[in-house]
Every structure is written in structure tokens, then in C-alpha cells.
TrEMBL record:
Sequence similarity: Belongs to the beta-class carbonic anhydrase family.
Reaction(s) catalysed (UniProt annotation): hydrogencarbonate + H(+) = CO2 + H2O
Cofactor(s) the protein requires to work: Zn(2+)
Gene: cynT
E.C. code: 4.2.1.1
Any one of the GO BP annotations: carbon utilization
Top-tier EC class: lyase
Record Pfam families: Pro_CA (PF00484)
InterPro entries: Carbonic_anhydrase, Carbonic_anhydrase_CS, Carbonic_anhydrase_sf
This protein's record includes keyword Metal-binding: yes
The keyword DNA-binding is assigned to this record: no
Cofactor: binding details: Binds 1 zinc ion per subunit.
Protein name in the entry: carbonic anhydrase
Keywords of the record: Lyase, Metal-binding, Zinc
Amino acid sequence: MSAEIESLINGYHLFRKKYFSKYNKHYERLVKYGQKPKFLVVACSDSRVDPALLLSCEPGDLFVVRNVANLIPLYEIGGGYHSTSAALEFGICSLGIKNILILGHTQCGGVANMLETKKRPMLKESFIAKWMELANMACSDAINSCNHLSKEEQVDQCCRYAVVGSLKNLLTFPWILDRVNSSALEIHLWNFDLKRGILEVYNKEQDKFLHLF
Ligand SMILES: [Zn+2]
């Protein structure tokens, strides 16, 4: 057995000890009464940004959708396999979650890839290129306005714009918009600065992300 797999199995044994021991009432309740998460999180698949770890949450706390660059597609019906939209529908309509958190992060490989692709088009068959069109739409203004920044800063700025773009797409879902309009659902836009280890919260009035200390 490889050392990598062995480390996962050791982690599994720790999980059993922490969450599945007969003394753990929390997990017993989750099994008996089902999940009732208070937050639906749309996060990136990036291995460095685990929402449960970042926010010190326990099993049952977060209903998490992860995809490349924490993007949300436009509402559309018919055709295709809409995994992110299906997860949104389940979390909001079936579980009745009242808070959505779109969690972006700096140094996002998906966003960096999108910026690179603008100069060097990818193969048409690429799943990533198609998916990242969503971020491209959200970032087109930002890309033009941050030409003076370093490449790294451009990526980080576009990561933030992509989060705001995801909000716009999220509001095209009728059952999301209805709930937001009736104050039954709140949406929060956060961004995690990987280099500084700081969470940034989007401020609508100032139209920018502010540090959360
Ligand atoms: Zn990412």
C-alpha cells in the first residue's frame, strides 16, 4: 500500500474515533433526524480551500457544492446535466436552507486558466474552457480595467469579480429570486485570500471585498 493511501486510511480511523464512537451524540442525531444544514456553500474544487476546514464546521453544518472556480450557471431548463443547479435546487427547495454562501478564493487555477485562454485558445472539446465562459462573462470589464496590475493581481481581481458574477447568475433562478425578495433567503459573497489567510466579505455599497478580521 502506498504511503499516500495509508495516510487516508489513518485519517479514516481518526474520523471513526471522533465521529462514530458510541459516545458521539452529534453524529447519532444526524443519522436519526437527517441533515439540516444552515448554509449552502458554493466553493471551488481547489484542494486548498475546504469550506468546512476554513470555517471550522462539523458534519451536518454545510451543504457544499464544489466546482471549478465556484461558478454558478444561468438558470436554464431542459437538456444537459446541471449538477450545480441540481444541488442548488435540493439545498434550497428540499432542505429549506436560508443562507447561500458563494466562497471564492485568490490564485484560482480555473480563473488563471481562463485569462490564459484569452491569449491562447484552448481546444474546443475542453470541458474547462466551456465552463469558464461563465467567469469570462463576469470578468470582461475587470480584465480591461486591471491591465496595469501584475499577472497574479489580475487573477486575484478576476477571482473576486467571478464571485459577483455568480451572484447575478444565481438570481436568474426563479425560486432563488422569490426567496431573496421575500427575505426568506440571504446570499453572502466571500473570498478567501490564500496568501494572507484572510477572508474578505463583499460590501454591496462600496462594491468591493473588505477584510474580515
Ligand atoms: Zn479555484
